[in-house]
Amino acid sequence: MKKTVIFLFLILFMTAVNTGCQKKQETDFILENPKEHTDNEKQTEGNKDIKEGKSGSEKEKSTENIFVYVCGAVQKPGVYELLPGQRICDAIEAAGGLSEQAAGDSLNQAEVLSDGQMLRVLTTEEAAAATVQPGQETAESSWDGRVDINTADASALMSLPGIGQSKADAIIAYRNEHGAFKAPEELMNISGIKEGVYQKIKDSIKVN
Questions:
Q1: Which residues of 61-71 are buried (b: 16+ CB within 10 A; e: fewer)?
Q2: In whole angstroms, what is the distance from residue 99 CA to residue 70 CA?
Q3: Going residue by residue through the chain (208 aa), what tens digit of pLDDT does each one get?
Q4: Domain boundary pick from 76, 97, 121
């Protein structure tokens, strides 16, 4: 009888031990599983943030850069990609710098560039011709770096920011039809030259 009781007690003890181990394993699985799930979510979100950040950076770069056409008396004329806020001096540097014949002070090199701008650097001869009135000798002229819109040819006019071939031709045609400009503001009477363009060039032009 005593042996039977001992045998039953051992069976109950082993059953209790096995049940406890199974519960511990289930508890460990429940505790560990959420952590793995959370870590996976964090890794996925981190990868997504990296991709989105890279995509945003590339998009920002492509939409912010500006393109400027530099021609005339520079070493390497061409279209150059620059950053917003850069100035004419930066565009000239990108084009290899001024040539030996360039009239560097014919431009306001501190002026901020705009997208699509054409920048033409005059030679010293072109700059002198743009500011000398008919009948005057070059040596007698007082050149202050501004373009005289009453005497400038198309090349000189195209050195002004925002003035391309078509606008330069329109200025000359207006001048031939109506006579000399009495004030720089009269440029706004020409189709295609409004307040925005005038504000860009008003400090670089004059009338004599």
A1: eeeeebebbbe
A2: 13
A3: 566 656 666 777 677 656 655 555 544 544 445 555 555 555 666 566 555 555 555 555 546 899 999 999 999 999 999 999 999 999 999 999 999 999 988 889 999 998 888 888 999 888 887 765 444 444 344 556 789 999 989 888 988 988 989 999 999 999 999 999 999 999 999 988 999 889 999 989 999 8
A4: 121
The pTM assigned to this predicted structure is 0.40
CA 18 to chain centroid, in Å, comes to 72
DSSP letter string over 54-112?
A: HHHHHHHHHHH-EEEEEEESBSS-EEEEE-TT-BHHHHHHHTT-B-TTB-GGGS-TTSB
- Both structure tokens of 76: 């390497």
Provide the residue type at 104 as one letter.
Answer: G
**How many separate domains does the chain show?**
2
Distance, in Å, from the CA atom of 100 to the CA atom of 120, rounded to the nearest integer, reads 15
Which residue range forms the structural domain that includes residue 139?
A: 134-208
